[in-house]
Amino acid sequence: MNTKDMPSNQFAEVIAIDLAQGRLLELAEIYAIDALTDAERNEIDEFVSTGPAEQRASFDQRVRQTRETLVSAFALEEADPPASLLENILAQLPQVSRTPGAVAAESVAAVEAGPTDELSVRRERKAARGGLSTGRRWLIGAAAAAALIVGGIGVGANIITNQDPGHQILNAADVKTKTLDFPGGGSAKLAISGSKDGAVVTMNGVSAPPAGKVYQMWLLPKDGSAPISQGTMDAAALSKPATIKGVDDASAFAVTVEPDGGSAQPTLPPLAALPLSA
Amino acid sequence: MSADLQWPAAPALPALCGHRERSTAGHPTFRYAKPLCLGLMDTPQIARLPEPSRQLHASGESGDSERDNLVRLISLTAAGDQSAFSQLYQLTAKRVYGMARRVLVDPNLAEDTTQEVYLQLWQSAAKYDPAAGSPLGWLMTIAHRRAVDKVRSTQSATDREARYGATSQVIEHDDVVDTVSERLDAEAVVKCLATLTPTQQESVNLAYYGGLTYREVAEKLGAAVPTIKSRIRDGLLRLKNCLGVS
Fold it and tell me: What's the complex ipTM?
């Protein structure tokens, strides 16, 4: 199809139409430079992964060439990162699980290990400066958690499939979407409606939780009271939208990894978190 | 008040909260990249590598040996070798941080982004496939993606437009200018960038450095969406051909 001399090189208004009209390859540059929303990127990824292999190969090659071009011509500047950065990164490595196939994943228990004294001291200094907003702190915590996902197959149950409120939320006039990227890849899309005081959470490309673990969703109340569980998700539930309630009074949405069946209180750090106030 | 107080935060955020030990003194200096960065942050366990050649290859790396070296370091990193990981950082972090600074401007956000990039590298080094692109291309793809995600979540499109709205080229932008024009390496890039039309440059700059989507670029420029898609595509294709990327 793309090898045709079709005169359809003229782009359309929306990506979906470009794809439908056979312009996947023409989107490679826009894709490679990240000039897409997450939803559009997902749309293209899905189109590519469900299409013929040779189409995929052509697209991948063109994306790769564009990326090399960008590295050569745009990502040229050098600046010195803070001297402490490498040390800080190294200090976190033991907490970061590895992609399966690399090495045996570090124990999840490592996450529970306390920080070294030096780090505690620095953190306190940092806290004393009052640097981070709640949201930022959360997001950084999520980055620190980075993996926890070991790509096993989830075992638990607790599939959340309450579609009725979900429909109401999705059809609400004030519905807005936010995307929460997972450090290990994939994202959660939240369709949030203030008028319905709820959100529909859809996972996209998120790895299954490790064996014996589930993901658990939380809302953090604005008033600072304890996080409220919004249910758990195992591997099977990941493909289904989940509905959560009480977003109006929440300052953030977060996902943690918990033992099967979920926990009464979140296990830190969160895998991913999203401020809801902004 | 803030929700995080509810959590036993201490064990949760170890190094990340303590990592901002920087002097408040000033801006990092931007320099034009050598093909690879070396040296400044060497730690005792890390061997110095020879100064790379100044020739700029289309891949953005300075040649087969450096490329091979990075590939090797990534595969060692995939096997859990922290020393290889450190070396990889030494060789590439200025580039990652430089780009993050350019996109995010805020040094704290750039630092966070850089940190996330290397944690992701550590986590997913096993996924790197040399057949699928150069190591630096792979790394900078991760880095740009993260920088763009962060800039979109922290800064309005308007702010980003304002910053990169001018049609000025990359190289005329700031204090990169002097050093860049001095360098032999840069000439091919400068020459090739100059083959882009001003409108192509503008759209590509807004997308790459501003983190704007094609739709935001179109809104910003008051141009039709299909037009902007074409400009980005055509500009990058032209650049690719000029640089001889294969």
Answer: 0.72
